[in-house]
Design a protein that fits this description.
The structure holds two protein chains of two kinds.
Chain A lengths: L1 H35 L16 H7 L2 H32 L6 H13 L2 H11 L10 H8 L16 H27 L2 H9 L4 H12 L1 H16 L3 H7 L8 H11 L3 H32 L1
Chain B lengths: L1 H19 L37 E6 L4 H17 L4 E6 L6 H12 L6 E5 L2 H8 L8 H7 L1 H4 L9 E2 L2 E2 L2 E7 L2 E4 L1 H6 L8 H13 L4 E4 L3 H24 L9 H14 L11 H9 L3 E5 L3 H8 L9 E4 L6 E9 L8 H12 L1 H11 L2 E2 L11 H12 L1 E4 L9 H17 L2 H15 L4
Parallel strand pairs in B: 1-2, 1-3, 8-9, 11-13
Antiparallel strand pairs in B: 3-11, 4-5, 6-11, 6-12, 7-9, 7-10
Helix pairs in contact in B: 2-13, 2-14, 9-10, 10-17, 16-17
The chains are: A mainly alpha, B alpha/beta.
């Protein structure tokens, strides 16, 4: 009796969320999938079957090619930058220095800010004006005599998206540091001691012992940062507005749907974004559940 | 234990009730969707609740005029409306943000839900026609034009640009000019450069300025301002007739003349600042009056910006038609429409009558910093620049702006914007021309 009542309670408590998720997440995914296979263009819904033509159009679309290239470049730089910086900071903080809590807070703080705020501030810092109108970091470089560092940031031809990775790394590397710090603290001192007793240098301890033990952390960090990176929209719009050299799928989806009324095409971009995130997250979920099952 | 269960069930019920509360049945009091502060929240009179009251007791007008001169102009026009129709309550359903992008997203949601306002603001021309007329949302307004004699007081060349198949679909309240060249009189004078009247003169002037050490002869801003520049160069190179033909399929986008226009455009871009994509239109306009640049092509709302900066016309800034477009007025306009099945149709028509009247337009435009669409506006109310624009509006040939929604619908415009963005990235004229031609075919006018 008691067991039954408890499980009834559990079901009753969980059912609203299940219902909401079923409708507002999976229901709308299904609806988007349907729209992406339609010829809907214009204000009012039009579910005329169009097969995969929206997807085929995107694969042949030079703008979508730019989007894919930008996303790959941004993801590589952003995830790579966060991992390297985050690990570096975590190792430094793990040396047992005084005021560790203070530094930890400072490095974590940027994460508490929204991408929009970060974007606006870095828009000022990375002002690409040249000549007599130098401003922001460029002006600082000029005053310090570091003229060779003056550059045109996100307006750099072909590589502007790399400049957008800088604020993104600034914002998320502290979070990566926190992940790594947790991982480092979980490694028992005995393991390090044993390696040192066996004659390993400090570098060797890190390379052969610590890093391999941190591999699950790296994997989690890559998945978390990776899906943020695939969906990036607000940061780019805040730093540079909506312009084609810095276009990514999420921006294309917005402009083509709400400025151009191409609802079918917009839904197709959305589905492709979903698939790319799924391609990243699902193998990770399988990997972790399998590992947990083994434990 | 049973108490715990009871509490949980209560909680769930509360949650469900709050969740359902958002989808109140039609006719119930509804807050104006998505409005940000400025909008008045009202009880709508449609559906069951409004029975017994007179139908035309309220008019809900939807716009994106929420700040500065625009909001003040709207208030002035509402005052005229209240005076003429004291028994109709005016419900200002303005949505802020994004130069109308937010408002249009909210409007699209409301129309898809069958909850149309009585009238809404839209750029006159294909932006309205391509989106709302194509979806059968608007009533033709020819009867209103005939009743009020508006055809006699509005330029003849304007009417086809705001019509489709002989039907006029909106009432233009204000007129802005797109093809204006703003310049810094001091910079030109110091370098002995005359205000150019043709494209060749313009190139020569900018070469001279560059040689004299002016870093940026022509100030440019973010991507939409490059499209704005593009439409004026198309007009300057092709002339009125061929330019109009681009949007109806009569001019072939693959024509050699268009190639020349694109080459002119590519050449003009060489005189612009390298950080254009990082500047707003205000930033770019400011470069001119600060003396960092000599010229800027921008709509005549730039004049309002210069006046805000405290500059004197002719001294701090000067203006002329974009070189090669003298005698042509490339316009854009905010206008109001009559939706099919407007909840308060008579009140909506009353609003449109005020919007098209001399009093309404003379109340709105001096405050907003634009000119009336009618040619009988009271000149004394307008400043020096606006008076010159009024003269041109009545004497010039009228053509429509691309960037601001007159000549191409939203879908076509967004495809053109992509083509333009690709061109700015790769500077490939032949590729650009192919892409432009393809957008025309995909959008319908070209075969």
């Amino acid at each position: 009796m008691r067991f039954n009542r408890d499980s009834a309670l559990a079901v009753a408590l969980v059912s609203p969320s299940i219902l909401a998720v079923a409708i507002f997440v999976y229901g709308f995914i299904a609806w988007s999938a349907r729209v992406s296979l339609s010829a809907w263009k214009g204000l009012l819904p039009d579910y005329t079957w169009a097969g995969l033509s929206n997807y085929a159009g995107l694969l042949a679309d030079p703008r979508f090619h730019i989007d894919v290239r930008n996303t790959l470049l941004f993801t590589t730089l952003f995830v790579g930058g966060c991992l390297v910086l985050g690990l570096g900071l975590a190792i430094l903080l793990d040396q047992g220095l005084r005021g560790e809590g203070f530094f930890r807070t400072i490095f974590l703080f940027p994460m508490a800010i929204s991408f929009i705020v970060t974007g606006v501030v870095w828009r000022w810092l990375m002002n690409p004006a040249q000549g007599s109108r130098l401003s922001g970091l460029n002006l600082l470089f000029d005053n310090l005599g570091l003229d060779f560092l003056i550059n045109s940031w996100h307006t750099t031809r072909d590589w502007g998206i790399a400049a957008i990775a800088i604020p993104a790394i600034w914002q998320m590397s502290g979070y990566t540091m926190a992940l790594y710090l947790g991982g480092l603290r979980a490694i028992p001192d005995e393991v390090r001691e044993a390696a040192r007793v066996d004659g390993a240098s400090e570098l060797q301890v890190y390379w052969h012992i610590i890093l391999p033990l941190l591999r699950p952390i790296t994997l989690s960090a890559m998945v978390i940062l990776g899906h943020i990176s695939l969906k990036v929209f607000d940061l780019i719009v805040a730093v540079a507005g909506k312009q084609l050299p810095l276009d990514v799928p999420a921006i294309y989806m917005w402009t083509t749907t709400f400025d151009g009324n191409f609802y079918g095409r917009g839904a197709a971009i959305g589905m492709m974004l979903l698939l790319s995130v799924a391609a990243l997250v699902i193998p990770y979920l399988i990997y972790t559940t399998r590992n947990e099952a083994q434990l | 234990m049973s108490r715990k269960l009871l509490m949980s069930l209560l909680l769930i019920i509360v949650l469900l009730v709050t969740a359902c509360g958002r989808t109140a049945p039609a006719g119930a009091p509804v807050a104006t969707a998505g409005a940000e502060g400025d909008a008045v929240v009202t009880v709508e009179s449609g559906g069951g609740e409004g029975e017994g009251e007179t139908a035309a007791s309220e008019v809900e007008v939807f716009s994106w005029w929420t700040g500065g001169g625009e909001a003040a102009g709207l208030e002035a026009m509402i005052a005229v409306f209240n005076e003429k129709y004291p028994d109709i309550a005016f419900n200002n359903a303005a949505v802020a943000g994004g130069a109308g992008t937010n408002a249009r997203a909210v409007l699209a949601t409301r129309l898809q839900a069958g909850d149309a306002p009585d009238s809404w603001q839209g750029h006159a021309g294909q932006e309205l026609i391509g989106t709302y007329v194509a979806a059968d949302q608007l009533e033709p307004l020819n009867f209103l034009y005939e009743e009020n004699g508006w055809l006699e007081v509005m330029p003849e060349t304007l009417i086809p640009l705001i019509s489709q198949d002989g039907n006029i679909y909106s009432v233009p309240v204000n007129i802005h000019r797109a093809n204006v060249l703003w310049y810094n009189p001091t910079v030109l004078e110091e370098n002995n450069v005359e205000v150019p009247e043709t494209l060749e003169e313009w190139f020569a002037a900018m070469d001279a300025l560059k040689a004299a050490g002016v870093e940026t002869p022509l100030a440019l801003g973010e991507q939409w301002t490059t499209m704005h520049l593009f439409e004026t160069v198309l007009l300057a190179t092709l002339g009125e007739e061929a330019y109009n033909g681009l949007w109806t399929g009569e001019t072939d986008w693959n024509d050699a003349e268009v190639t020349t226009a694109l080459e002119n455009y590519a050449r003009i871009l060489e005189y612009t600042n390298s950080d254009a994509s990082a500047l707003s239109w205000q930033d770019a306009s400011q470069l001119v009056v600060d003396g960092d640049a000599a010229f800027n092509v921008m709509g005549d709302w730039a004049e309002g910006f210069y006046k805000e900066l405290g500059l004197e016309p002719r001294e701090g800034f000067g203006w002329a038609p974009v070189p090669g477009t003298g005698g042509t007025f490339q316009f854009l306009s905010d206008s109001f429409v009559l939706p099919v099945g407007a909840p308060n149709r008579d009140a909506a028509i009353a609003w449109l009558t005020v919007a098209g009247s001399k009093e309404g337009q003379d109340a709105f435009n001096p405050v907003k910093g634009s000119i009336p669409a009618r040619n009988d506006g009271d000149r004394a109310l307008y400043d020096e620049y606006l008076q010159s624009a009024m003269d041109d509006w009545t004497s010039n040939t009228i053509v429509g702006s691309l960037t601001h929604g007159v000549v191409a619908n939203d879908s076509w415009k967004s495809e053109l914007d992509t083509a333009l963005g690709l061109f700015l990235a790769n500077q490939d004229v032949a590729n650009f021309q192919n892409a432009l031609s393809a957008t025309c075919v995909a959008s319908g006018p070209c075969k």
